[in-house]
Amino acid sequence: MQDSREIDYFGQRILQIVQPLAATEDRQEMLPLLARSVANNFAADGCWIVQYLSPGVFRVAASACVSHRANSITNQLTNYPLPTAATPMLWRMPLLPDYQVMVVELCAQGQVIGGLVVATKGVEWYEEAKLVLQVVADFIGIGLLERDLQVQADISQIYPKLHYRLTQAVVENQQIDKLFEIAVADMVEGLKLNRGLVLTLKASDTSKQPAAHSETLVAAHLADDSLEISEWDRPLAEPATAPAPALVSPGATKTTTQIQIVTTIDNRKGNLLSQPLPSSFLLEESHFCKTALANAPNPTIFDGNDLGTPTDRLIFQADRLPSMVMIPLMGATSGHRQPKQPVWGWLVLQTNRSRHWHPVELNLLQCQIYQIALARIHRKALKQARNAVANRTSQVQTSLQLQAKLHDVGRKRMEKLRQANELKDEFISTIGHELRTPLTSMSLAIKMLRQVDVDPARREQYLDILDEQCQREIKLVNDLLKFQQFETRQVEYRPQRISLNQFISEQATLVADRWDDSKSLELALYLPQVSPQIDTDADSFNHIVEELLINAGKFALPNTMVEVLLTVEPERIIFQIANLSKPISDEDLPNLFDRFRRGAGITQQAIAGTGLGLSLVKSMVEHIQGTISVTSSIVQPAVAKTSFTIAIPTVLDRH
């Protein structure tokens, strides 16, 4: 039977170890307090409470590093498997043989759930100390199990609320930055944290940007533009250790990666920063971000032992918020055969006290992030589908418009072909009539001349008929030949100087003598006092004047006047022939100079002609570098003044 004093001694030591727990009701604080109390009671450099997750896999659930030397033991704990022993046993660490490391199993409900590690240097472990450590280990095992159950119970209450709020925001089609704001705010509140950030990666060209040399210049080489949602779709960084910077030649483009702060949730009261946070910073300036990038897709936990770079101290405030976890934002994948997705940012959660992040909590955080990643992927796919539909719709619309245009062009061509066939038929009919009529008259005159008893007067009359019809036939053939020459541009331009007053007077008089005497037409010439001289193709100009005068006499109303007007301007000469005739319809007027085209009224009046005259005139006017136009103005009912106006430049283009 043990001495009562020995029992009192054991009881007092155990009570000293567990006594600090009375000062807190927070189960999150229970294990760290126990670890520190054990380290202090056994004058150890450090104490670690390790939790087994699976065979050979464990995590440090709580720790107390009394001296800075204990940090090296922390690093070795993650690299070497712990020995298992039902009773406290001494373990010599391979790289720290001078330390006496005592290891004892933590059990609860008949199962080994972890281990208690106490490291001392130069302190002997007596049997009494081992017994005390064994009792404390049993107490800690129960506390570890109770904390896990409590964490799971807390998560079971928190998760439905977080999941519902985030799902509702996704259904309402909130923007990605709004989803992050909702999720981070709920996580900070639900897990009783102090701060949450969302960081995104963005590639940028900084070849022309100045490098920052101090904490105060962090924002000097940041992008001025705010983050666009579309930028988040760029795969920027593979989950691997960042390569060493390569040498860049002067003036070459250097691509760097910026980290933009998208969402910040901070529930600390009276939190005043010495300087405002920048909108973004460079990846190369952050030790925390580079480490988290190398650890992806796994979360990265920082316990406050490392304050990082000046940029880290400004952005993450590790001196005030020592416990931090960084969850990588990655594309959502399933299955080991899926390719490794690029990291496009991090969810950062921080608290102002030492905190060991439970796997259940990390799973909760990753589920929330996974849901946002799915929303992002779905929206990107929806956007691509909408773009594809819009592009296809645009292509179909363009195709339909093109088909409509082709149909319209085809319809117009068919209409032109129909009109051309009608003109061809009318031309053939007209030419046939124009050729047959003179030949009939000539044939009849020849028959009459063959008679023996024809008197000389009749003979002269028949010869005149033969001559007139022959000239008519020759003119028709010549017009056809000239038209063909102008169509194939085989006419040579031969200018010569002519006096217009004399030329027009002689030509008008000759043509007026050939007008139908039954119409009683008069000719009026309005010529300038000084005859203008012009260099032009005389044959073409002669044909123009003759054809227009013949045309005027043919269509002029009886007992009216045909006017010829010549006007001299500084750079051109205006030649105009006008007569009173029946109005030309608005439909026929624009087509008056088309080949083989004859107005409906002309055809109905059975006026002789082939439809080539005005078309040939237009070709000749253009040949002498002039222009021609026609007007038909109503002067009284059923009477219009028809005017053909020709403008000839006084200075010809020799080219």
Offer a few descriptive terms.
alpha+beta, 655 residues, single chain, five-stranded antiparallel β-sheet, 22% strand, 18 strands
Major sheet description: 6 strands, antiparallel
| Strands, total number | 18
Distance between termini? 136 Å
Question: Number of DSSP helices?
Answer: 13
- Largest sheet strand order: 8-7-6-11-10-9
Percent range of helical residues: 40-55%
Mean pLDDT: 76
Detail the poorly predicted runs: 208-253, 333-339
Strand content: 15-25%
The gross shape turns out to be: rod-shaped
Structural class: alpha+beta
Radius of gyration based on Cα positions: 54 Å
Write up this protein.
- The strands form 4 sheets. A 6-stranded antiparallel sheet has the order 8-7-6-11-10-9, with helices on both faces. The protein has a 5-stranded antiparallel sheet with strand order 2-1-5-4-3. The protein has a 5-stranded mixed sheet with strand order 13-15-16-18-17, covered by helices on one side.
- α1 (4-18) packs parallel to α4 (127-171) and α5 (176-190) packs antiparallel against α8.
- The protein is built from 13 helices and 18 strands.
- Helices cover 43% and strands 22% of the residues.
- With 655 residues, it is of the alpha+beta class.
